[in-house]
Amino acid sequence: GRDFLYYSLHYYFPDKFNRNINNPLLIEKNNIFSFSVNAKFAWLMIQFFKVPVLFKELGLSLLIGGKQIKTFWDFIVSIISPNQKSAQEAIEEVEKLIGQGFVAGIDISLSLWGLMDHVIFVYGYNEDNLYVFDTHQVAGLEYEKITKDTRYIMKISKNTIIKKWSRFGRVWVVKKEFV
Question: How many domains does the chain have?
Answer without folding.
Answer: 1
